[in-house]
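User: Can you recover a sequence for this backbone? Please restate the input before giving your answer.

Assistant: Of course. Working from this structure:
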C-alpha cells in the first residue's frame, strides 16, 4: 500500500480505498473540461476515502476544502494545508466549488445545500447506498451528479480482485480453515 497521508495511522486504509480514490480522480478528469490543478474541490467526509482523496487532490495542486464534523478532524485538515468546513453547515456555502466529492453514506446534501451550486459544478457521490444526496433533492440547471459505486472493480479490476482474494485468505486463516 502507498504511504499514508500525514496524521493518518498505518492500517487506516483498506486495499480498495486507493482504487476508489484513483477512480474518482479519473472520473473528475474525464467529466470536466479543466485540470484538477487549481480546481476548487470539496471533499465531504474525512474518513478513510475522504482523507485519502483529499490528500491526492491536494498533491495535484487542487484548492481542497474538506468537510467533517469533529474539531479533531478540522485540526488535521488545516494542519495538512487544506480548508475545513463543518458538514452540518454546508447550506449556502457550496457556490465556490467546481467539484464536490461525497464520501458520507448518509444524505448530507439536500435541497438547501444543493441550491447554491454554481453552474457547471460536478458532484461525484462515492458513498455506498443510500449515498449522500437526498432522494428528493434536485441539482440546479447545468450541474451534474455522478453516482460512482463499485469503482475499484471498474477502474482497477486486478487490484480489486487481489484485495478480495487477500481478505478471503486472511479470514480463512483466522478461522483455522487453511
Amino acid at each position: 500500500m502507498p504511504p499514508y497521508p500525514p496524521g493518518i495511522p498505518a492500517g487506516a486504509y483498506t486495499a480498495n480505498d486507493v482504487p476508489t480514490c484513483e477512480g474518482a480522480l479519473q472520473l473528475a478528469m474525464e467529466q470536466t473540461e479543466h485540470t484538477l490543478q487549481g480546481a476548487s474541490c470539496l471533499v465531504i467526509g474525512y474518513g478513510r476515502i475522504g482523507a485519502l482523496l483529499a490528500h491526492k487532490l491536494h498533491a495535484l495542486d487542487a484548492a481542497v476544502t474538506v468537510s467533517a464534523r469533529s474539531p479533531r478532524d478540522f485540526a488535521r485538515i488545516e494542519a495538512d494545508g487544506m480548508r475545513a468546513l463543518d458538514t452540518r453547515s454546508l447550506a449556502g456555502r457550496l457556490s465556490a466549488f467546481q467539484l464536490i466529492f461525497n464520501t458520507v453514506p448518509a444524505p448530507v446534501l439536500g435541497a438547501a445545500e444543493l441550491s447554491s451550486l454554481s453552474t457547471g459544478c460536478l458532484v461525484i457521490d462515492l458513498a455506498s447506498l443510500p449515498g449522500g444526496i437526498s432522494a428528493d433533492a434536485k441539482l440546479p440547471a447545468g450541474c451534474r451528479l455522478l453516482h460512482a459505486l463499485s469503482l475499484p472493480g471498474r477502474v482497477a479490476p486486478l487490484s480489486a480482485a487481489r484485495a478480495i482474494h487477500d481478505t478471503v485468505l486472511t479470514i480463512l486463516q483466522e478461522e483455522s480453515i487453511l
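That completes the design. The first helix runs from residue 17 to 31.
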